[in-house]
Description:
By secondary structure, the protein is α+β, with helices and mostly antiparallel strands. The chain has helices at 4-17, 101-114; strands spanning 23-29, 33-41, 44-51, 56-63, 66-74, 77-81. The protein has one domain. A six-stranded antiparallel sheet has the order 1-2-3-4-5-6, with helices on one face. The radius of gyration is 13 Å and the shape is globular.
Amino acid sequence: MNSVDFIWQEIAEVQSGSYLIIRTEILEHEKSFLKVRLYLKDELYIQIYRNDDYNTTNFVLVLHDERIYARDEVRKKWHRHQESNPQIHDTTSEGKRNINFKEFFEEVKTIIYKMKLV
Length: 118
């Protein structure tokens, strides 16, 4: 499901349709590797990481340089870091669910509104 090309396309679609993203920082973008930050505020951003060679995907919501929510894929296995306890790996059926960036962005919107971050 996820690949650098697929995620790159989803990022572009989310950016074009969301007023929440104020700035984009492309840290690295190569054929099989991607690292991007989408800023919602100066201290609040989503970091997207994908490495096709290692089948690794990380979607992370960061506030003040601390992870507050994340979805991680390592060797085709997913887990979630919930906002209630972002240090713990959630491996429930919902936590292990495959997810794409657009779905993650929808989760982030729910979280940031609930936490009154925007």
